[in-house]
Amino acid sequence: MPCIKCISKEVKETLLHINDPFLSMTIETIPLCEGERSIEIEERKRKRKSSKYNQFVGECIKSGQGSNIKDCAALWAKSKN
User: What pTM was computed for the model?
Assistant: First the structure.
């Protein structure tokens, strides 16, 4: 998910002239960029934590305990009984 890391003073002033209270509050929280950049965008990646099942199946396949996901799923089911 992209996010704005910083904006220039000129861009900030231009956006603040738009008559929108929510936009103004949001723009005020964005820091100013240093140097010549007018805006800097940062890509943030969110990664969900894998479930215990997915971790088990991944390790099972990597270790060679199961030759495919079906085998590893069966081993998971046995381990839960």
Answer: 0.48
Nearest CA-CA partner of 61 in 74, 49, 48, 78: 74
Q: What is the pLDDT along the chain (81 residues), one digit of tens a residue?
A: 578 899 999 999 999 999 899 999 999 999 999 888 888 888 777 677 889 999 999 999 899 988 898 999 999 999 987
Give which of 11, 1, 2 is closest to 31, Cα–Cα: 11
Structure tokens, 42: 């940062």
CA atoms within 13 A on the CB side of 17: 5
CB atoms within 10 A of CB 7: 21
Burial pattern 14-46, b for ≥16 Cβ within 10 A else e, equals: ebeeeeeeeeeeebeebeebeeeeeebeeeeee
